[in-house]
């Protein structure tokens, strides 16, 4: 089984980290292919960048030349999952939804801890679209930008653990979803600080994608995610480079 | 005052019709500039096309060389309004939200009648994001594709009036929002058939945009719609043609 | 176009202030007529006074001898808008709903800052009835009574600005609606303190009423707001004076 | 214990019927006093009439010269209960809320069957304000006006039983609340037709009012229902006759 | 009229206290029979114990040899009320729902103050199932275990009054429901501290059960609470002792 | 890895069918152990039987002598999952929640088709408790009792396929969850009839349980699902046989 894990930003180091994380959770026999979009922002922290990423992810998968069995969109709180479901027949898993869906099996409520305050609304909307808001205790921001997470992982881990602890104590969260990239030691530190299970979206998404493939299930094409109707599309996709 | 009214599809005839409709509702002294996106689908009827339109509309406005006072996104149930609000300082009005917001001043409940069944979920999501779902009685599809509306306006008017009548009788709607383009005689026919007020999104959006400008109000930049942070954006915007 | 702007209390000085505010927002050619109810409380700060105001406003408009094109009910969080919609054919705009509806075009969430704590529930109910609760972050009270606002405007402005700042910081509001009368400098002070757009209900209502008239739209009479059925009404309206 | 049961319309025959119904449900030692408002419509079937009734009921209770222990507002889906709670210290029970609250102890869901279609929204709003919507399966109209119920009780009973049966079968109601006056045999006929418990608002309200008095409980005066603040009220109450 | 009041734990002293409380609220002619389950935990503070109590209460009522007119399940936030409704024809009243339903007649919002933090979710779920969440301001825990309430009533009263005061001030509750056993002086102390009405579930349930019996109303058997279908039940009920 | 799959009824043939279905979905290296409760009803179709099953399942797992890695509660819409989470440290997966959670990755909305009408409310409550209601289009009953499904599978398949088709057409479901036992050919027939993905709760639960174990995740013990406090439990568990 081959699963495409598509980063939403154009920073190759992040794609690589995501790919390693995904591979670590994959079953024997599952090949993880991590892809970087051919255009877009070096980090995605707002609606404009997220809409751009949505389209970039779709075109990146469209350009992938080999067959594949499932797609994971590896951005937290991003636009675009519905478009992938229209364009392809294989299952599509968004990591925000994968994390929340997994968290719901572990505790009565969960919170998400993310990077910047401005991405909180994007995550809230994605959880709503996913039908996963009812048990969400809160979405909290650590105040660290995506690229800062890479630059100063120690400070990032501390800021995130602090917000996780407040989610458990003040917002009554019983599980924490990490809404940010794969820093080494992050999950361990949050578990240690809060005593609650910590869910990572990428690894959760890998197990869900594998499960759907094994069960022979894929996207319903009956209405919302039917393939686009044949029509003229002007000046698209763009010629890059 | 200059208001940009941006079509979401690349069919120039539709842009022209929208522009005329908008101009008809504008106050003396308001200049309406109707724009067609430089790339994208000839009609927008699903998530992939809508995400593509979202980005195309943003780039089209970015490329517009003159100053302007407000932006109207003239597509029903489309993605992208939040991105425009990040990129620009002037007010941004989505026609789906403009119609619903106006309808709420006219009756206790409203229904939207749109083109294809597959666009119903997109409209429902947009109304949710806009906080305008509570008084929405239903979103109904006429079964006519966007371009069919142009090709056989008589059949389209009949199919839309039929769904409007069912919304009033079965779903207890008290106002109808037209979720499709500017066919001549459409609103009149629906009023005649149902006896309830009929709201057109484009004209409603023009009056709202003018009002916001006159009141000196514009998008809050404090959190969700703050300008994108300065960063490297790879291979974008594309070179077209 | 003539728009009736009806105060809900019997304090003529407040009627005058509301009238000036409304006139300042009106288009050339719009005549604003500000009316004081013939009976009722000198300020409206609770359910009994608000129910009384509801009826007083309706009778006041009924007694107005000239033709008019729209009605604005200029009280924050008051009962009665639905009754006006039954009695008259022209559009009716409630300032609580006008402010919230306008705020939703400016930010993802809004808060209302009002006078006394006891009027908070009235405003919350009015927003619910208006279908405008989903994006309401909070309704906050400054603790100043309506007539105190007139007597000590400096203290009032400070108390209101303080609550507005807390709404933006603690409740994540991105827009502030002013749920209290027209003190000079209030909006400016709140903008200065919070950095977010500030919406005044009276001016917002004027632009909405004008827009509905220009678009040829009025109240749906199909069900909820149908004219009262002909019947015997005992001892009403009362003989005053 | 003395309980005031206040009709909302000015038809004395209806007041008398309500009073008899209430007396039939009262405990030994409870005196039921049925009151007709001194002004208002002969039947209440819409917002204008209901707002007028709200004020008329308040003034009627205010003018009652003897002490009393509780107030029942005996109109279905009417405005005003909150005002009574402000003006008086004794418990206030609205029959719409009494019926729904009682029905919730009898089945998982309930429906209300009322007179005219135009009163459905009023009942829905009252149930919302009362926090009693979650288990409401539907509010259905029989199409009979209030005074028609008096004039042709056989047809009324049949029309109401028909809607009750549809509520049970189509809307999955498990209890029926009768949202209309006390026709002889009505409850029996609906029980016979549907096989589900039938709740009458007036009798339910009597038992609730008695219970509150016996438990020594009354309206909370801490915020929403605090007594009106002392202030000047102009031209009110009116001089009648 | 005979009402069974069934404790959910196996501590006889608590059964006795509940029985006295119930008897104090009963009308002349009502016999209160307080029952202790034949198996289960000495206090119920979590899901396992509550599910066990649910079954124990049902079997305890099944084993009761005399006729009876109503059943009160006297545990706060416990499972099982729906099962009792299936097994018996007489009305069943849960004290959590009785308290909330009564509180809604007294103030716009209510809070529940209970024993341990871990029982908060159970109460929240029960209020949801009862359709009584909309006006619930909060469920707060005093941190005192059920048996501690018996052992150190003074400290318990203080801890509960403290949370009640915070509910009124911070959560805007206007009524307090006591979600814990009958300590002498508790209600008085909370009224004194907060100034709001305080509702006790057991006494509220007695008046509701009496009212349903007097009105001739009982559980709807049309769907959810129909009697169990005849079938083989293995090894149940167990032989005790 | 060993997963316990616990039937909720005492019919051994159903336990066997569930076990085979589970084994068919398990990864190599996963051992499925199917258990029948030691007491309870031969089929579970209502609240009393479901509460009894809840306790029976808990005691059955408690009595299981070997170590295990996860528990699946294999009944549709049953009580008890929260109790298992308190009693054990390993992950607990309810099949109702597993099916819905899986369906949400496949389509915008899903419907459940179950056996008898009386179990619909139980499934709706379980989906609510699981935070999985928002995308649930409907829960429909085929009218076939659980044991009838075994006796006349052809009629059962036809009745279920019919309701599935109506869910897709009338309720706009895009995925079907089968809320009833493992009849051969059922899923295939429903896919064939409706063209939408069909999710079986048992197989979905197996993949979720395996995923949680592989990811090293288990139930949060911080609040709702903390182990029961040490205390005296009277006469329990019962001596059977």
Automatic annotation (TrEMBL), chains A, B, C, D, E, F:
Top-rank lineage group of the source organism: Bacteria
Enzyme class: isomerase
InterPro entries: Asp/Glu/hydantoin_racemase (IPR015942), Hydantoin_racemase-like (IPR052186), Iso_Racemase_Enz_sf (IPR053714)
Pfam families assigned to the protein according to its UniProt record, in alphabetical order: Asp_Glu_race
Reaction it catalyzes: a D-5-monosubstituted hydantoin = a L-5-monosubstituted hydantoin; D-5-benzylhydantoin = L-5-benzylhydantoin
EC number(s) given by UniProt: 5.1.99.5
Gene Ontology MF annotations: amino-acid racemase activity; hydantoin racemase activity
Homology family: Belongs to the HyuE racemase family.
Protein name: Hydantoin racemase
UniProt organism field: Saccharopolyspora antimicrobica
């Amino acid at each position: 089984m081959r699963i495409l894990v598509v980063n939403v930003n154009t920073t190759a180091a992040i794609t690589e980290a995501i790919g390693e994380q995904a591979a670590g959770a994959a079953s024997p026999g599952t090949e993880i292919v991590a892809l970087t979009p051919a255009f877009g922002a070096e980090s995605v922290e707002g609606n404009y960048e997220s809409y751009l990423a949505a389209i970039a992810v779709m075109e990146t998968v469209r350009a992938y030349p080999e067959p594949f069995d499932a797609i994971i969109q590896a951005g937290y709180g991003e636009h675009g999952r519905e478009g992938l479901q229209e364009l392809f027949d294989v299952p599509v898993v968004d990591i925000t939804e994968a994390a929340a869906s997994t968290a719901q099996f572990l505790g009565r409520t969960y919170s998400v801890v993310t990077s910047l305050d401005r991405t909180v609304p994007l995550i809230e909307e994605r959880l709503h679209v996913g039908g996963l808001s009812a048990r969400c205790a809160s979405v909290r921001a650590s105040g660290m930008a995506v690229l800062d997470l890479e630059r100063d992982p120690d400070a990032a881990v501390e800021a995130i653990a602090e917000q996780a602890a407040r989610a458990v104590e003040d917002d009554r969260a019983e599980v924490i979803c990490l809404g940010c990239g794969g820093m080494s030691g992050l999950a361990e530190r949050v578990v240690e600080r809060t005593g609650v299970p910590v869910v990572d979206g990428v690894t959760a998404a890998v197990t869900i994608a594998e499960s759907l493939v094994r069960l022979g299930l894929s996207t319903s094409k009956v209405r919302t995610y039917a393939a686009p109707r044949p029509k003229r599309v002007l000046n698209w996709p763009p010629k890059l480079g």
